[in-house]
Design brief:
This is RIPR1 regulator. One of its GO terms (cellular component) is cytoplasm. With 326 residues, the protein is an alpha+beta fold. It has 2 domains: 130 residues, no CATH class; 117 residues, Immunoglobulin-like, CATH 2.60.40.150. The protein is built from 6 helices and 10 strands; from the N terminus they run E-H-H-H-E-E-E-E-E-E-E-E-E-H-H-H. The strands form 2 sheets. A 5-stranded antiparallel beta sheet has the order 1-9-10-2-6. It has a 5-stranded antiparallel beta sheet with strand order 5-4-3-7-8, with no helix packed on it. A hairpin with a 2-residue loop joins strand 3 and strand 4. The radius of gyration is 26 Å and the shape is flat.
Length: 326
């Protein structure tokens, strides 16, 4: 089938802890041929996602700062201390995001410089090739232009690979198949997802009351620049009789978003069978996962946490009660 883009709808539900199940190495070597047009699209989507991430956390920081100012006159010290800790945590995360965004801008700027140099070398090669190659100077100039073109191409491939390593992670959670009258109790399905060198295979069955049971529910994919997410759904009818329901390729650059997204993918041509996934983007890779995830989760759950205080701080304890807070 032709390329099928995701149709995202924003959801504020946060994902639980994700297990990593890479069946093979996810590190890909630098490409041999650069893809500048594709990189432009991914860079624009990435910058949009980082900007949204900064805005969400900046709003959360402003809410906490306002609550601290309103709580200073009449509040327990422990309550203020907890608020202050969260403010400092979000401030650190914002600084990391800003540094990360500036690093990506520097990589992209260097990539654009190499692209312009490569285009210039390509024009020189065409000019020298169109002229008379008889003179020694012309042959040397042509060889020098070819050498420069090859060097700039290699530099672009290296920068493209480095930029790809800064794309963070996609945390994908299986929500189930939606098929209206297409799904019946007892049906069994196998879903195989391929994203570059990353693989995820899971099996599930439809039970009574439209409940679904899957042997795997969560996966972490590292975003790629030039690859698309391939999804293959097979209905398991018997040992030797499996029916491929659909095989689609999906665009992933729209998944660079600050909030978790619920995406629906049309598996067959008629759209009677859909795959529902919840995708959460983390702008940092797994090496930074512990500190980044704790900050993001804390920021995303702060509204629910402080709703129990009903926007008013607890009363200041009496002299007798203060003994318990020393």
């Amino acid at each position: 089938r032709n390329l099928s883009p995701f149709t995202p709808t924003v959801s504020r539900k946060t994902g639980s802890r994700v297990s990593r199940m890479f069946s093979m190495s996810h590190k890909s070597p630098p490409p041999k041929v650069p893809q500048p047009n594709r990189l432009d699209d991914v860079y624009e989507a990435l910058k949009k996602g980082l900007t949204a991430y900064l805005e969400v956390h900046q709003l959360e920081l402003e809410k906490l700062s306002t609550q601290i100012r309103e709580s200073k006159r009449n509040s327990r010290l422990g309550f203020l201390y907890d608020l202050d800790k969260q403010v400092k945590s979000i401030e650190r995360f914002l600084r990391r995001l800003e540094f990360h965004a500036s690093k990506i801008d520097e990589l992209y700027e260097a990539y654009c410089i190499q692209r312009r140099l490569r285009d210039g070398a390509h024009n020189m090669v065409k000019a020298y090739s169109a002229g008379s190659p008889g003179s020694r100077e012309a042959r040397e100039s042509l060889a020098e232009a070819n050498k420069g073109y090859k060097e700039y191409t290699e530099n672009m491939c290296l920068l493209e690979n480095e930029l790809e390593s800064q794309l963070g992670e996609f945390h994908v959670r299986m929500k189930g198949l939606a098929g209206f009258a297409r799904l019946c109790a007892g049906d069994q399905y196998e879903i195989f997802m391929k994203y570059g060198r990353q693989r995820w295979k899971l099996r599930g069955r439809i039970e009574v009351n439209s409940k679904q049971v899957w042997d795997s529910e969560e996966m972490v994919f590292l975003p790629l620049v030039t690859e698309f997410l391939s999804i293959k759904v097979t209905e398991l009818k018997s040992l030797a009789n499996h029916v491929v329901v659909g095989n689609v390729s999906c665009e992933t650059k729209d998944l660079f978003a600050a909030l978790p997204q619920v995406v629906a993918v049309d598996i067959n041509d008629l759209g009677t069978l859909k795959l529902s996934l919840e995708v959460t983007w983390n702008p940092f890779d797994k090496d930074d996962q512990p500190s980044a995830a704790s900050t993001v989760n804390k920021a995303s759950t702060v509204n629910k946490r402080f709703s129990t205080y009903n926007q008013s701080p607890p009363d200041t304890p009496s002299l007798r009660e203060q003994a318990f807070y020393v």
